[in-house]
Design goal:
Layout lengths: L1 H37 L6 H16 L6 H19 L15 H16 L5 E7 L6 H5 L6 E8 L2 E4 L7 E7 L1
Antiparallel strand pairs: 1-2, 1-4, 2-3
Helix pairs in contact: 1-2, 1-4, 2-3
């Protein structure tokens, strides 16, 4: 009888430790988990995940910043990494309501991330057309547009590396 009680106690302790471990893992993966789930269907989801992990690592080093500056950190690095890695070539036809397929998936993914970080729940993706290029050129892969992210923070629109001439091609709300 005493032996059974010891076995049950040992099992209880093991189960508690496993639950604590799972909670710890889940807490650490919540931020990037939102992105991975939201962008699963996107052909560029690996890129989105890679950029997201880099952005989180960079900005976690600035925890001492206030919310507005931390938001700026996320926004700046998302834009920098998107510009350097995306080399944007849309894979779907233009849809004026939703934007391009890839851009929409990326917008949804980042909207999820920024909402989880309590930074924003509305996000836009804009692209810059190369000189003398049309939207059709970009859609059909004859020209490469540069992407940037815009989001709203405390009723103020925040963006880096975006210009007024850039066309918003996707929007999402988390």
């Amino acid at each position: 009888m005493e032996r059974i009680e010891k076995i049950l106690l040992a099992w209880s302790i093991c189960l508690i430790l496993i639950q604590v471990g799972l909670l710890f893992i889940r807490a650490n993966l919540d931020d990037i988990g939102a992105i991975m789930l939201a962008s699963k269907v996107n052909p560029n989801y690996k890129l989105v995940r890679e950029i997201s992990q880099e952005v989180l690592e960079i900005c976690e080093n600035y925890r001492f910043l206030n919310e507005s500056n931390r938001a700026g950190c996320y926004l700046f690095w998302i834009n920098m990494l998107l510009s350097s890695k995306l080399k944007y070539k849309p894979t779907q036809e233009v849809n004026p309501d939703l934007g391009y397929g890839d851009c929409k998936a990326i917008a949804v993914a980042y909207a999820s991330l920024l909402k989880r970080l309590n930074l924003s729940d509305e996000i836009y993706i804009a692209i810059q057309l190369p000189p003398n290029a049309t939207m059709d050129d970009v859609v059909h892969g004859k020209a490469i547009g540069h992407a940037c992210v815009i989001f709203k923070l405390e009723n103020e629109t925040r963006s880096y590396n975006c210009e007024e001439s850039w066309r918003i091609v996707a929007r999402a709300r988390a």
